[in-house]
Here is the input.
Amino acid sequence: NGCHQAKTETHEEMPKYAATTPFREDISLTKGYVSQIHAIMHIEVRSLEKGYLQDIFVDEGQLIKKGQPMFKIMPNIYQAELLKTQAEAQKTNIEYLNTKGLADKNIVSANELALAKAKLDKAKAEVNMAETRLGFTDIKAPFEGIMDHLVVRVGSLLDEGALLTTLSDVSQLWVYFNVPEAQYLDFKTHKKDKIGETVQLKMADGEIFNQTGVIEAIVGDFNNTSGNIQFRALFANPDKILRHGETGTILMAKPYPNAML
Here is the structure.
């Protein structure tokens, strides 16, 4: 008996290739740069005098208006100091008026009158100093901004310069992003330093921020470790959506005129 094996014929189809016609067009490609968001003003609020913290008028995360009272340090000592200097100034003023009356009658010399006037000026200066120190017990917001964490609580004993909280003006934002050296040199080669160019900001959730930014400055020198140089863009933040310390991605378009596609 013999075995018969049928041949299986295979049919290979010729591959099909898509064809297109290249063309030229002005285009731009978008490059992303990791960025850090800073409030245009971000300050530490500190005590200017020693004393017990008597009152806190604000809360964490609150929008604070310019001039709004924030903290009050117990003013008793400074009020007493002011009353003391005012009494000294009143006494010195009486002495000056008496000396002036005698000087007008040529009973005392002009030098003695000048000395009395100097004592009066000194006493008035001490009153002004005492008033200023008393004013330091009322701590008010220097600008409108959002308050951060409270570092102290009512009743805390504060040293001069003690940190109370921080305050951020987020009506405008400085967004810093790093540009590699090669791209920076490419900008310069094509005589485009990017100052004044508009950019967009992609927020941490992937959404594009609803305001357009403008590159304001190239900050400092190159970082020898990373090979980057820092750019700064300014963004308006009218709805207070973004806050100090957030991150995002700057989107900057690079044009390619008459590119072949």
